[in-house]
Amino acid sequence: MNARPKKSFGQHFLHEKRYIERIVSAIGPRADDRVVEIGPGEGALTLPLLAAAGRLTAIELDTDLIPGLQARADGIGTLEIIHADVLKVDLSALAQRLGVPRVRLAGNLPYYISSPILFHCVDHAAAIEDMHFMLQKEVVDRMAAEPGSKVYGRLSVMLQLACRVEPLFTVPPGAFRPPPKVDSAVVRLVPLAAHERHDADPQRVHAIVKAAFAQRRKTLSNGLKTLLDSEAIASAGIDPRTRAETLAPEDFVRLAKLPI
């Protein structure tokens, strides 16, 4: 029996088999992988992932979906369902409890809170092997955007400083029930290795990036005036008259490492 999608949870259930198969193939689950799925819904991805890995942990907020999902998983593998808001789940502690250094994340993320979920995952990147998410295509475009692009912004910089971002393929509205009003896309995120990560204060980086993109038409000297003056910006080899969207992610790290 199909569940009734709830607008309050932003639910759009994936049902088209060929896209389910493409996503599972992209993830490539291995036996005994510790896969954690965010928002399993009716189990379109859950069951094939469970069959491949033998065990799976799912984080689901909607209590009405949990009994049916547990019943569908019976006999396929070991499914643990955590009833919680993923934003309140300590993913690092979860990996530790599951007995692995890093988990693999997957999910069809609710579009209305996709950015907060992405930032939450980045906060726990050291405990994550990779992430395969379905999101609104416009969000995936922003995630992978290069400097100079009209959609390059805070999300682009913060994710690219933490992960390799690889858009995989587009999924049309008709693959869901009910169909969303926009195209979706699947993206792969692979957290950078320790030696690839920047060594600046993460909170300082976040503050610099947030301020720089708060008003896109402002120059850096205006956007960052409460954090850095023009002389400081220039000392990092960056023209204070430029705008944030022209800077590469590593430029923001250089600014964050300047003396306060």
Automatic annotation (TrEMBL):
Check the record and name the SMART domains matching this protein. Answer: rADc (SM00650)
Q: Where does S-adenosyl-L-methionine bind?
A: H12, L14, G39, E60, D85, N108
Any one GO MF term held by the record is: 16S rRNA (adenine(1518)-N(6)/adenine(1519)-N(6))-dimethyltransferase activity
Which SUPFAM superfamilies would you find in this protein's record?
Answer: S-adenosyl-L-methionine-dependent methyltransferases
Known InterPro entries for this protein?
Answer: KsgA/Erm, rRNA_Ade_diMease-like_C, rRNA_Ade_Mease_Trfase_CS, rRNA_Ade_methylase_Trfase_N, rRNA_adenine_dimethylase, SAM-dependent_MTases_sf
Q: Which GO terms describe its cellular component?
A: cytosol
Compartments (UniProt record): Cytoplasm
Q: Which coarse location class describes where this protein primarily resides?
A: cytoplasm
User: Which intervals of the chain form a coiled coil?
Assistant: none
Give EC number(s), comma-separated. 2.1.1.182
Q: Name one Pfam family in it.
A: RrnaAD
UniProt keyword annotations, A-Z: Cytoplasm, Methyltransferase, RNA-binding, rRNA processing, S-adenosyl-L-methionine, Transferase
Signal peptide per UniProt: none
The catalytic activity, as recorded, is:
adenosine(1518)/adenosine(1519) in 16S rRNA + 4 S-adenosyl-L-methionine = N(6)-dimethyladenosine(1518)/N(6)-dimethyladenosine(1519) in 16S rRNA + 4 S-adenosyl-L-homocysteine + 4 H(+)
Its EC top class is: transferase
**Ribosomal RNA adenine methylase transferase N-terminal domain span:** 19-193
Question: What's the stated role of this polypeptide?
Answer: Specifically dimethylates two adjacent adenosines (A1518 and A1519) in the loop of a conserved hairpin near the 3'-end of 16S rRNA in the 30S particle. May play a critical role in biogenesis of 30S subunits.
State the similarity comment.
Belongs to the class I-like SAM-binding methyltransferase superfamily. rRNA adenine N(6)-methyltransferase family. RsmA subfamily.
**Which PANTHER family does this entry report, sorted A to Z?**
DIMETHYLADENOSINE TRANSFERASE, DIMETHYLADENOSINE TRANSFERASE-RELATED
- Protein name, entry field: Ribosomal RNA small subunit methyltransferase A
Q: What is the lineage of its organism?
A: Bacteria, Pseudomonadati, Pseudomonadota, Gammaproteobacteria, Lysobacterales
